[in-house]
């Protein structure tokens, strides 16, 4: 796969995007710097949307899916409170943009995508960009028991409920960030598994995601 060049113009637009995210309340410098390093325009297949690559907007990425809005990516990533070397499970690889941000922060990323065309294309794209995640074509409701438990689990599609398997695959001290709710709007939940094994949940407000697909989806 050939990637678009990343020139000074894109770098300038990225700096502006990072400034914008700062004014919207994103504080974590490591997260802002990671977003400042990932060439988001290289994740957009349809050239009609290229001009908007560094706007704070979501875009179609094929298969009826979208690349999340940069603010949402920043918000979820900030909530993860990542440290280098942490094992992270992402549900909903999509374009791979969020995956790249996690990798820039030094996480070891396993990411599951339910739609095969997206999985295949993103695998090729991230490899061409030099990123090395473990990408899986599969069903995110089940998590990835063979690689777990995880320090962090991040769901990037709107889940109708909190899948039990994602909770059980969290390490004690681990954290699950998941938008939950049926319909257009979800609540962003941050669920911590405490060292004694119990769970503690916080609600961080309303967000909009494409729905988490069930088993009938292609
Ligand atoms: N993190 C992505 C966001 C993509 S949108 C990005 O940065 O581009 C959410 C993605 O979740 C879509 O690609 C969708 O196909 C995928 N998805 C939906 N249901 C899923 C499931 N059950 N398991 C894994 N992925 C799923």
Structure description:
- The chain is an alpha/beta fold.
- The protein has a single domain, classed as Rossmann fold, CATH 3.40.50.
- The protein contains six helices and nine strands, in the order H-H-E-E-H-E-H-E-H-E-E-H-E-E-E.
- The protein has a seven-stranded mixed β-sheet with strand order 5-4-3-6-7-8-9.
- Helix 1 packs antiparallel against helix 2.
- The two termini are 24 Å apart.
- 42% of the residues are buried.
- S-adenosyl-L-homocysteine (SAH) binds next to strand 2, helix 4 and strand 4.
Taking the sheet with the most strands, its summary is: 7 strands, mixed
**DSSP E strands, number:** 9
What is the helix fraction of residues, given as a range? 25-40%
Q: Give helix and strand order, one letter per element, not per position.
A: HHEEHEHEHEEHEEE
What is Rg? 16 Å
CATH architecture assignment name = 3-Layer(aba) Sandwich
Query: How many distinct domains?
Result: 1
Ligand names: S-adenosyl-L-homocysteine
* Rounded average pLDDT: 95
Distance between the termini: 24 Å
User: Remind me, CATH topology?
Assistant: Rossmann fold
Overall shape: it is globular
What share of residues are in beta strands? 25-35%
> At the first level of CATH, what is the class?
Alpha Beta
Q: Quick one: CATH superfamily?
A: Vaccinia Virus protein VP39
The neighbouring-strand order within the major sheet is 5-4-3-6-7-8-9
Please count the helical segments: 6
Low-confidence stretches: none
Q: Tell me the structural class.
A: alpha/beta
